[in-house]
């Protein structure tokens, strides 16, 4: 599967996930509406995961210079970070106390993934606007930036999966929904969609680019530091 096909598949998967999470949060649960409880999955799935995934794919499809791609990547990641911060903020709005909702594995993983994401964004911002660093230092840091970026994205997906499982288990334990019902199917479908999306996005990020040479043969495209351009940021 080529790069363009992976990007298209990721976009279609993201669209299905967005529709499912909106349907589940706003339409499937009766008389709930737009509350802190429904804002949390909307912000974390659409605003954080889908937008950050799109930022990862920027280097695969956006035309223009490397500087332009890095700028768009940076600002999309900034939007994702703002959504994540507000998504966590919604969990502080319950009457039972500030830290009462941060006791589970889901909450701990969420705090870790957002903290790592924030650190990644700050280092990316500093690297983009301050170009006086020694080139060897930037080259050495690049693989770690890529690794931590993909690791954080995968951690965010895993956090969302634990959140879906936690919510569904809570509803079934309290007999609000039966084990086999329409809502369970939607939540399980959302979880599978997130797993599929993460695989497509990460694959698109790590595969080297190909282009046709003048001889008609395909060749790998590398940057001046002998690193794949698709991994630069």
UniProtKB/TrEMBL annotation:
<feature type="domain" description="Cytochrome b561">
    <location>
        <begin position="9"/>
        <end position="206"/>
    </location>
</feature>
<feature type="transmembrane region" description="Helical">
    <location>
        <begin position="109"/>
        <end position="129"/>
    </location>
</feature>
<keyword id="KW-0408">Iron</keyword>
<dbReference type="GO" id="GO:0016020">
    <property type="term" value="C:membrane"/>
</dbReference>
<dbReference type="InterPro" id="IPR006593">
    <property type="entry name" value="Cyt_b561/ferric_Rdtase_TM"/>
</dbReference>
<keyword id="KW-0349">Heme</keyword>
<dbReference type="Pfam" id="PF03188">
    <property type="entry name" value="Cytochrom_B561"/>
</dbReference>
<dbReference type="InterPro" id="IPR043205">
    <property type="entry name" value="CYB561/CYBRD1-like"/>
</dbReference>
<feature type="transmembrane region" description="Helical">
    <location>
        <begin position="38"/>
        <end position="59"/>
    </location>
</feature>
<dbReference type="GO" id="GO:0140571">
    <property type="term" value="F:transmembrane ascorbate ferrireductase activity"/>
</dbReference>
<keyword id="KW-0249">Electron transport</keyword>
<keyword id="KW-0472">Membrane</keyword>
<keyword id="KW-0812">Transmembrane</keyword>
<dbReference type="GO" id="GO:0016491">
    <property type="term" value="F:oxidoreductase activity"/>
</dbReference>
<keyword id="KW-0813">Transport</keyword>
<protein>
    <recommendedName>
        <fullName>ascorbate ferrireductase (transmembrane)</fullName>
        <ecNumber>7.2.1.3</ecNumber>
    </recommendedName>
</protein>
<feature type="transmembrane region" description="Helical">
    <location>
        <begin position="141"/>
        <end position="165"/>
    </location>
</feature>
<keyword id="KW-0479">Metal-binding</keyword>
<feature type="transmembrane region" description="Helical">
    <location>
        <begin position="185"/>
        <end position="207"/>
    </location>
</feature>
<feature type="transmembrane region" description="Helical">
    <location>
        <begin position="7"/>
        <end position="26"/>
    </location>
</feature>
<dbReference type="GO" id="GO:0046872">
    <property type="term" value="F:metal ion binding"/>
</dbReference>
<feature type="transmembrane region" description="Helical">
    <location>
        <begin position="71"/>
        <end position="89"/>
    </location>
</feature>
<keyword id="KW-1133">Transmembrane helix</keyword>
